[in-house]
Amino acid sequence: MARKRGRHPRSGADNERGAVRKKWQGRIRVALVYPQPYAVGMSNLGYQNVYRLFNAVDDVVCERVFPAPEAHPPGAVRSLESGALLTDFDIVAFSVSFENDYLNLLRVLEQAGLPLQSQQRGTPHPLVIAGGVACQLNPEPIADFIDCFLIGEAEVLLPAFLAQFRAHSDRRQLLLDLARRTPGVYVPCLYETTYHADGTLKAMVPAAGVPARVKRVFLKDLAEAETVTAVVTKDTTFGRRYLVEVGRGCPHGCRFCSAGYIYRPPRFRPLSALEAAVARGSALAGGVGLVGAAVSDLPGIAELCRYARDHQIPLSFSSLRADALTPALIEALGKSGSKTTTLAPDAGSERMRRVINKGLSEKQILDAVAALVAAGIANFKLYFMLGLPGEQLDDVDAIAVLSRKIKHTFLKASRTRGQMGRITLSLNCFVPKPFTPFQWAPMDTVATLKGKIRRVKRALAKVPNVRVHADIPRWAYVQALLARADRRVSGMLQLALQNRGNWAQTFKETPLNPDFYALRQRRADERFPWEVIDHGTRRDFLWREFERAGLALPSKSCPMTACDACGVCGRSLPKRS
Question: Homologous superfamily of 240-484+536-550 in CATH?
Answer without folding.
Answer: tm_1862 like domain (3.80.30.20)
